[in-house]
Amino acid sequence: MTAHGHVASRLTWPTRRAEIMDMVQQLLKGPFTLEAYRRLAELGVLREDDRLELIGGQVVEMSPIGGPHAGCVRRLMDLFVRKCLDLAMVDVQNPVVLSEHDAPQPDLALLTRRADGYPDHPRAADTLLVVEVADTSLAYDRDIKMPLYARAGIPEAWLVDLPADRLAMYRDPVGGAYASVRLVSRGETLSPLHFPHVTLPVDEILGLPSGG
């Protein structure tokens, strides 16, 4: 409403964009290929700062990043940069292309070092470890994304379960699933599969306990 009680004649950009997105979803149900997904971004239908990922050919909106989630990602980034900087490239919340119809955005990925810094998105073969941080998205990360990483052959995936105050390590992808799952709690340490000499305290990943 305007100051005079009349409905404004021009809609705000977010409102107009929401209507456009509704139209696109109705007209283009998918599945989308990676190329079609990129084309939507080029056309301005999807924006660079949208929290979206391509899963099974569908454009999936990711949960908003809350404070605990963001804090955990910062701690992970700090730990891996300090301990693995000369061993691997640390990538944060960027796409990893797994197939023609899958380009998830893990919260953190360790990538094989390359002099060119990956001018295009890395592939599964470039990925040594992915880490997902779950605050409100545990079921989605555990039941959708972990099997997706396993099917792509990524050797290791970690799932930080913030509500449960623990972490799950997934290893040994076999037949579209990880054969080994280990739960790790406070007071313990863990090491990436490819860098067993690198030790990360679980407490430094989870941060201060609630109320601490």
Account of the protein in words:
With 212 residues, the protein is α+β, with helices and mostly antiparallel strands. It folds into two domains: 13-61, no CATH class; 67-206, tt1808, chain A, CATH 3.90.1570.10. It contains five helices and ten strands; from the N terminus they run ααββαβββαβββββα. The chain has helices spanning 13-27, 34-42, 67-84, 138-151, 202-206; strands at 52-55, 58-61, 89-92, 108-111, 127-134, 156-161, 166-174, 177-184, 189-190, 200-201. A six-stranded mixed beta sheet has the order 3-4-5-6-7-8. It has a two-stranded antiparallel ribbon with strand order 1-2. The radius of gyration is 19 Å and the shape is globular. The chain starts with 12 loop residues before the first helix and ends in a 6-residue tail after the last helix. 26% of the residues are buried. The model is unreliable at 1-15 (pLDDT under 50).
Please specify the SSE layout and strand pairing.
Elements: H1 13-27, H2 34-42, E1 52-55, E2 58-61, H3 67-84, E3 89-92, E4 108-111, E5 127-134, H4 138-151, E6 156-161, E7 166-174, E8 177-184, E9 189-190, E10 200-201, H5 202-206
Parallel strand pairs: 5-6
Antiparallel strand pairs: 1-2, 3-4, 4-5, 6-7, 7-8, 9-10
Largest sheet: 6 strands, mixed
Query: Percent helix among the residues?
Result: 25-40%
How is the largest sheet built, in terms of strand order?
3-4-5-6-7-8
**Number of separate structural domains:** 2
Low-confidence stretches: 1-15
Per the CATH scheme, the topology name of the largest domain is tt1808, chain A
The CATH homologous superfamily of the largest domain is named tt1808, chain A
